[in-house]
TrEMBL record:
SUPFAM superfamilies: Cobalamin (vitamin B12)-binding domain, Cobalamin (vitamin B12)-dependent enzymes. It comes from Bacillus kandeliae. Residues 39-119, 154-474 form the Methylmalonyl-CoA mutase alpha/beta chain catalytic domain. It comes from the Bacteria. This is Methylmalonyl-CoA mutase family protein. The keyword Lipid metabolism does not apply. Its cofactor is adenosylcob(III)alamin.
């Protein structure tokens, strides 16, 4: 078709009723309600969004205009370029310097590294490393006081970027809230850094620990705002104005697997942050805080680790559409021993591909104007603001952490997420579905052990005076001082399933073979659907299966059991076939091998179940079952323990 003809083509108008009829036809009798999705934010996602869905939304026509939903800058990434801040991993400061040179030549444009891995870095090595023109993006965690002391003592050119520790979230993950002494030392360091390096953002608000505890997008935004209020009010008490405080603010988010929700999260945050600034009479450029993000560790798995490439790629994509300034992509084998060179390269290249090959940074706010995104952003913003006010009415972040109410709320969401994986309401490829029994299972790498000084200082100047050429970050570490609270506990979603696989590996290491038998009743087409389902379920727990030949009689099934002598069998077939064989099948199998456990695939009626149970049936394998409970029980068979349904 010629260009002129293409330009003249029109799409016929389709009414909502016509769309509904077509959709219902494709669902083959199922209700349209099947296409609606309820999120953990308790937001209902519709299958179709129309202009009417945003008629009540005050959508912004251009980026760079308050309330900055569409971005802080009119030109988007064309005006303010994305900074790839891949955290470099190295076993020494010299190795880190080598990796830094290679990374910058390969397109990285911000310096970031694991502060824990470099805890043995000396003052001299740090000074050499930071003698470069690139912006810094470093989460200093336990080492903010020591690292900032290094920077203040060094003869460095003007630094820029982000260097800091979020005391609230960092301490909360340890089960602490900072006390007055910890806050005073932190304030002294902030003050010195502000005077020496005014272009460095040192007041970091990091929601990642809450993301790792299972937080929803609503909770993340509300927590970010509440922590911002905490820091503004704390610094006001120290004599800073709100304007002085926010000019040093940097927000850091984790980007999860719910693509559109994550895009909307970043957009909704900017909108609410602008509203919060208004309440403090902060306007103009000061509102445009630094926003960085990392792909979430919460969604990564040790098992089938290459799937993590797809997860992190999608999450990085969402981060760019949401408009972050700094981006970090987690290596796909982060939790599988030492991170490989391939994983490092893939993590570094994902943002480069999104920029150079997908050209995402050449379009200003590509998500803007979407009925779906705009509607979702609005719903998210309203709910997050309500949650933020609830936290503030409860006394603010410090109070809810001390009372433990926030930790309990996060634990409830995390529990629901894990249950949804356990019953396969949600899928995690390679973990709770499509598990690969041949996958090599690595133990998590503990990293280099660093002995930290248990030092207590009364002033920051005292710490500054202790900096010398060969002093390391670890040697200048200051002991945490705070009040104990319920920890904000981090846990990856895949961990409960990984623990099952670790149990299986331990059993095999003792010399046992973990194999189950499937008793296949009738012809292949009759038993295959349920046999495939059971095979998939058992593989997620590290249990392999052997299928029997077609069993057309009880005698054939008994012969298979006698020949194989596995501790566990599952009967697979159609409901009609179960009726043909009847409960006597189980009785005959138990008579042949008394020690075996027998389940049946699928559910039976209440009356039938009672009859089969009386004959010796132990349980069932069925869709919607809690697989974590079931597989844990089955593994106990090979461990020699008792099992339960």
């Amino acid at each position: 078709m010629k260009i002129e003809e293409m330009k003249s083509q029109n799409f016929e108008h389709v009414s909502l009723e016509e769309w509904k009829k077509t959709a219902e036809a494709s669902l083959k009798g199922k209700s349209l309600a099947k296409l609606y999705t309820e999120t953990y934010e308790q937001i209902t996602l519709k299958p179709l969004y129309l202009k009417a869905d945003i008629e009540s939304v005050e959508e912004e026509q251009f980026p760079g205009i308050p309330s900055y939903t569409r971005g802080f800058y009119k030109g988007g990434y064309v005006e303010r370029s994305l900074k790839t801040a891949h955290p470099l991993k190295a076993h020494s400061a010299s190795n880190l310097q080598t990796k830094l040179s290679a990374a910058m030549q390969a397109g990285q444009d911000a310096l970031s590294f694991s502060i824990e891995e470099q805890a043995r870095m000396t003052f001299r090595e740090c000074s050499q490393l930071l003698s470069n023109p690139y912006p810094l993006y470093i989460n200093t965690k336990d080492h903010f006081l020591a690292f900032s002391a290094f920077l203040l003592k060094a003869d460095l050119a003007e630094l820029q970027g982000v260097i800091g520790t979020d005391l609230l979230s960092h301490f909360a993950a340890k089960g602490l809230v900072p006390d007055e002494q910890a806050l005073d030392l932190h304030f002294e360091a902030l003050t010195e850094m502000k005077q020496r390096y005014p272009k460095v953002k040192t007041v970091v608000i990091n929601t990642v620990p809450y993301d790792l505890a299972g937080a929803t997008a609503i909770q993340e935004i509300a927590i970010a705002l509440s922590q911002a209020v905490f820091y503004i009010e704390w610094l006001k008490e120290k004599g800073w104005t709100p304007l002085e405080a926010v000019q040093l603010f940097s927000f850091h988010f984790a980007i999860g697997s719910q693509f559109f929700m994550e895009v909307a999260k970043l957009r909704a945050f900017r909108k609410l942050w602008t509203a919060l600034c208004e309440s403090y009479q902060i306007h103009g450029e000061a509102v445009k805080v630094t926003v960085g993000a990392e792909t979430s560790e919460f969604t990564l798995s040790k098992l089938d680790r290459h799937v993590n490439i797809l997860r992190t790629g999608s999450e990085a994509f969402a981060a760019l559409l949401g408009g972050v300034e700094y981006l970090q992509v987690t290596p796909f084998d982060q939790f599988n021993g030492t991170t490989s060179t391939l994983a490092e390269r893939v993590a570094k290249n994902i943002p480069l591909m999104l920029q150079s090959e997908s050209h995402l940074t050449k379009v200003v706010d590509p998500a803007g104007g979407s009925y779906f995104i705009e509607s979702l952003t609005n719903e998210l913003a309203q709910a997050a603001w309500k949650k933020f006010l609830q936290i503030e009415e409860s006394g603010g972040m410090l109070s809810v952490l001390k009372e433990g109410t926030l930790q309990k709320e996060l634990a409830q969401v995390l529990e629901q997420r894990i249950v949804d994986l356990a019953v396969r309401k949600k899928s995690m490829i390679g973990t709770n579905i499509y598990a690969d029994l041949n996958e090599t299972f690595f133990s998590e790498h503990e990293g280099m052990e660093v002995l930290l000084a248990d030092r207590q200082v009364t002033s920051y100047k005292e710490l500054l005076n202790q900096v010398s050429e060969e002093r390391t970050l670890a040697e200048l570490h200051v002991r945490d001082s705070g009040e104990q609270v319920i920890p904000v506990k981090s846990q990856r979603l895949a961990e409960p399933f990984e623990q099952l696989r670790e149990r299986a590996v331990g059993i095999q290491a003792s010399g046992k073979t973990i194999q189950a038998g499937l008793i296949c009743l009738g012809k292949l087409k009759d038993f295959k659907p349920r046999a495939d389902y059971v095979t998939g379920v058992l593989s997620t727990g590290g249990i392999s299966v052997q299928l029997s030949d077609e069993c057309h009689s009880v005698e054939e099934a008994v012969r298979y059991v006698k020949e194989t002598q596995f501790p566990y069998y599952c009967i697979c077939g159609k409901d009609e076939t179960y009726k043909e064989f009847g409960p006597s099948l189980v009785a005959e199998l138990k008579q042949a091998e008394t020690a075996i456990q027998i389940d049946i695939a699928g559910k039976l009626s209440e009356e039938e179940n009672a009859e089969w149970r009386a004959a010796g049936l132990n349980g069932h394998v069925f869709a919607g079952q809690n697989l974590l409970d079931k597989l844990s029980s089955l593994l106990a068979l090979w461990e020699g323990g008792a099992t339960h349904e």
